[in-house]
Amino acid sequence: MVTFKAMNFLSHFYFERDNYDENMVIGVILPDLVKNAQKDSNLYPLKEKHLFEGDALQLSLLKGWERHLEVDRIFHSSEFFKTQTNALKQLILPVFENSPVKPFFLAHIGLELVLDHLLTVKGTVSIPTFYERLTLADKPALDIFLKNCGVADTSVFFKFLDSFISSRYLFSYQKMENISYALNRICMRLWENPFTEAQLSMLTERLEQYKESIAPDYLEIFDRIEGMLPPLF
Known about the structure:
By secondary structure, the protein is mainly α. 64% of the residues lie in helices and 0% in strands.
């Protein structure tokens, strides 16, 4: 299986689930796609809006990028994020015995991936539709967009994008053990031997327990964010 640095792709797609502009949809997850493809890339297209505003496709990509940042801003400044990150951290603390991993770091990313997991198992977003939108996006326009952002060689990104789409990796988010696996892979980028198999098994159990606790009301944070976003058009 092709593996990726886990990001909350589906939570971002939730806000575009009825958006038929495939270029805006791919723009919404583009910041995370770029970070997966080239982790050292730091792009700031909103500082150079004039480079994109003369073309409708470029503008759609830019609007998607902007919506991604706005969703992150609202989410990470919310009381929900603060409260739930702390709740999850407390729940998974026993996992960290003799582990170098920082509990808040794992709780932050774990919360986001549990939300993605809930969106899939509850059928709130359609993973096939997500991939369909990405497939329909205008790749020449995306190439120009990235070059306008300062990416001289876009071949690495498009190789990653093709792999991301063909692997259908996000279907794995339907099983909690794969969420634990994804979290472990992220930690392996920062720490050597972050968790033992026993710790990963415990992590899966605690994530399942946490999921059950927030499942009845998890959509409230999505509703709140959606109410604060500007209309699509």
